[in-house]
Design brief:
Length: 563
C-alpha cells in the first residue's frame, strides 16, 4: 500500500472508529491499514443477488394525511411542514398510520425500480419522512418495510444517501421501534443471502444498542447474538462476506457484554482469520473489554432518525444551489450586452477541448482470443445527443476504457468515475486513479483487473459509465461491432467519430445542461446564460466537437502500452 493510499484511507478508518463510539490510537489505525492492505490483495467477491418482490402489490390504503407525499412531480410547494404533518399523523389510529407508512415506502420503492435508467430522478424524500414517522410513533409494524430499504442494491443506497449525513437513518429508526419479539425476524434478515454485509451489520448494531433504551432486553439481545454466532461459525461462506459479518457480530458482543459468547468467539478466532478492524486487538481485546465495555454501538447523535435528517438539512448550503423554474421570469430577465460588464467580444468565440485523464498509456490484459471491438458511447438523455465511437482491443482494461471515454468526450477528470454492469449482478468497477479504496466496499471491483471483454461479449451488450458522482453524467457504452484484426493492423485505441459538445465539468448535471441548451435557443440573452458564458469564458456551442483534437488525445494512449 502506497503512502498516498494510506493518506486516503486513514481518515476513513478514524471515522469508522468514531462512529462506533470507540477510542483509538495511532497504532490501532496503522494495524487497520495493514489489515485492509491484506484484504484488498485477496479481493473477496461480495455479490448482490437479492430479487425484490413486486412492491406495487404491497401498497395498500393511504390516509389523506400522507397522500401529498405521493406527489411525483417537480413542484412540492403544497407539502405540509414536517411538524404539521407529524401533528396530523398523531390524530390517526396506530394501525391506519402504520399501514400508510408501509405503503408510502413500498410505493416509492416501486417507483424507483420501475423508473429504469431514470431512477436517479426519483424523489425519495417521502421515504425519509416515512422513516421519521415510524420512529416518532414507534411503529414496530413498519419494521418489514424498513428492512426492505436495507435490502436494496448499491445504486439505490447511493441515491438514497446522496447526502452522506443521512446514512444511519434506518438503523436509528430500528433502534427506536424494535422489541424483543422482533428478534426472530431479524435473525432471518441477517441469515438471508444475496444482500450486502454492510446492511446486515447496520441492523445488528441497531439491535445491540436496544438495551440502552430498554435495559430489560439485555439478556435477550445477548442470547440473540450467541444464536447468530452459532449460525455463522459452522456454516461460513467467505465469498459472501460472512467473515466480515462475524467480526461485526463480535464487536456487538463486546458492547452488550455478552460473556456467554466468549467460547464461540475463541473457537471462531482459531478457525477463521477475521479482519480485526472493529476489533483491532482480536481475541485478546475480547477477553479484556467484554466485561466493562459500554452498552450500545450507535453514537448518541445517531440514536434519532429525525436528528440525522435535521443535521443534514442544517449542513446543506442552499445558497450554493440554483433552481430554475420555467414560471420564474427572473431567470429569463433579458440583459443588454453592456450590462454588468457583459461583452460578447470579451468571450472566446467557442469553447476549447478540455479532455484529460490520469491513466497514462493503455493497459491490456491477457485474453484467449483477441478481437476488435467497436463501441458506441452516448451521454444519456443529452440533446443534442452527445456520442462517440471508439475502436478498442477486447483485452483493453476497464480503467483504460474509462480513460478513452474521458478523452474522447472531453471530460477533465476532476471527479471520480466507475462502470456499472447492466446485467443481473449490478457490480461496480472502480476506474478512478485515486479511488482504490472503493474496492473495499461490497459489490465494488477493481476495474484494472478486468478487461472490456469481461463485460461486453456479444453484439448489443451494454454497460454504464458514470462520471462525477455528484452531477452523475451517465454514459451508455454499447458493443456495436466485433471483428478480426488484420495481420499487420495495429491493435490500438482509436476514436473514429462523434458529434456534439460534451458539457463542461461541474455544470450541474444533465438536466441543468438541457435547461441551458434550451435557453440558448429560446432566450439567448438571458441572465442565466450570461452567468454561464462568463463562467466558461466563451460563447458556448452545444454542437461543437473537435474530432481531430480529441482523436489525437486518445491516440496518445497507444504510444507505449503496458501488457
Amino acid at each position: 500500500m502506497t503512502n498516498e493510499e494510506k493518506n486516503i484511507l486513514k481518515p476513513l478508518i478514524e471515522g469508522v472508529f468514531k462512529k462506533c463510539g470507540r477510542d483509538y490510537t495511532d497504532k490501532m489505525v496503522d494495524d487497520a491499514l495493514k489489515k485492509i492492505d491484506q484484504m484488498s490483495k485477496k479481493s473477496p467477491e461480495l455479490p448482490y443477488t437479492y430479487k425484490h418482490p413486486d412492491y406495487g402489490k404491497m401498497v395498500k390504503s393511504m390516509p389523506e394525511t400522507l397522500k401529498p407525499l405521493l406527489n411525483t412531480g417537480d413542484k412540492h410547494d403544497d407539502l405540509p411542514e414536517l411538524e404539521n404533518l407529524m401533528d396530523n399523523c398523531s390524530s390517526l389510529d396506530r394501525s391506519t398510520l402504520a399501514e400508510g407508512v408501509n405503503s408510502l415506502i413500498y410505493y416509492w420503492l416501486d417507483k424507483y425500480h420501475n423508473a429504469g435508467d431514470n431512477n436517479d430522478d426519483i424523489w425519495l424524500y417521502p421515504i425519509y419522512v416515512a422513516i421519521m414517522i415510524a420512529e416518532r410513533f414507534e411503529l414496530r409494524e413498519c419494521l418489514p418495510a424498513l428492512l426492505e430499504t436495507e435490502r436494496q442494491d448499491r445504486k439505490f443506497t447511493e441515491t438514497f444517501f446522496d447526502n452522506c449525513f443521512l446514512v444511519g437513518m434506518v438503523p436509528a429508526c430500528i433502534y427506536h421501534i424494535v422489541t424483543e419479539d422482533d428478534l426472530p425476524m431479524l435473525t432471518n434478515f441477517v441469515h438471508e443471502r444475496g444482500i450486502y454485509t454492510f446492511s446486515k451489520a447496520e441492523v445488528i448494531a441497531a439491535v445491540c444498542t436496544l438495551p440502552r433504551r430498554l435495559p430489560q432486553t439485555l439478556t435477550a439481545v445477548q442470547k440473540w447474538l450467541c444464536g447468530l454466532l452459532d449460525i455463522f461459525a459452522d456454516h461460513i461462506d467467505p465469498e459472501v462476506g460472512d467473515i466480515m459479518l462475524l467480526e461485526a457480530i463480535v464487536h456487538c458482543c463486546i458492547h452488550t457484554r455478552c460473556e456467554a459468547a466468549k467460547p464461540i468467539i475463541v473457537r471462531m478466532y482459531s478457525m477463521y482469520k477475521l479482519p480485526n478492524i472493529l476489533v483491532p486487538g482480536g481475541i485478546n481485546e475480547v477477553r479484556k473489554t467484554i466485561k466493562r465495555a459500554s452498552i450500545g454501538v450507535l453514537k448518541e447523535e445517531l440514536e434519532s432518525a429525525e436528528t440525522i435528517f435535521q443535521n443534514a438539512e442544517d449542513s446543506y448550503d442552499y445558497d450554493e444551489e440554483e433552481y430554475y423554474d420555467d414560471e420564474d421570469e427572473e431567470d429569463y430577465e433579458e440583459i443588454n450586452d453592456e450590462d454588468e460588464g457583459f461583452d460578447e467580444d470579451d468571450l472566446a468565440p467557442r469553447q476549447k477541448y478540455c479532455g484529460h485523464a490520469y491513466g497514462g498509456k493503455a493497459i491490456y490484459l491477457p485474453v484467449k482470443v483477441l478481437k476488435k471491438y467497436t463501441l458506441r458511447i452516448e451521454l444519456k438523455h443529452s440533446a443534442p445527443l452527445v456520442w462517440r465511437e471508439l475502436e478498442v482491443p477486447s483485452s483493453l482494461s476497464l480503467t483504460s476504457l474509462a480513460q478513452a471515454i474521458l478523452l474522447s468526450m472531453g471530460w477533465d477528470e476532476d471527479h471520480l468515475h466507475h462502470f456499472l454492469s447492466d446485467g443481473k449482478n449490478h457490480h461496480s468497477y472502480a476506474t478512478s486513479h485515486n479511488e482504490l479504496c472503493s474496492t473495499l466496499y461490497p459489490g465494488v471491483k477493481d476495474g484494472s483487473r478486468y478487461g472490456v471483454s469481461h463485460l461486453l461479449q456479444k453484439l448489443g451488450d451494454s454497460i454504464t459509465f458514470e462520471y462525477d458522482y455528484g452531477d452523475s453524467w451517465y454514459h451508455a457504452v454499447k458493443l456495436q461491432a466485433v471483428s478480426e484484426y488484420d495481420s499487420n493492423e495495429p491493435k490500438s485505441v482509436i476514436l473514429t467519430s462523434g458529434a456534439n459538445a460534451c458539457p463542461p465539468d461541474d455544470s450541474g448535471g444533465i438536466h441543468h445542461y438541457l435547461h441551458l441548451v434550451k435557453l440558448m435557443a429560446e432566450k439567448p440573452h438571458s441572465a442565466v446564460l450570461h452567468d454561464f458564458y462568463d463562467w466558461v469564458g466563451c460563447k458556448w456551442d452545444p454542437k461543437y466537437f473537435p474530432l481531430e483534437q480529441a482523436a489525437k488525445a486518445v491516440a496518445k494512449m497507444n504510444e507505449t502500452v503496458h501488457k
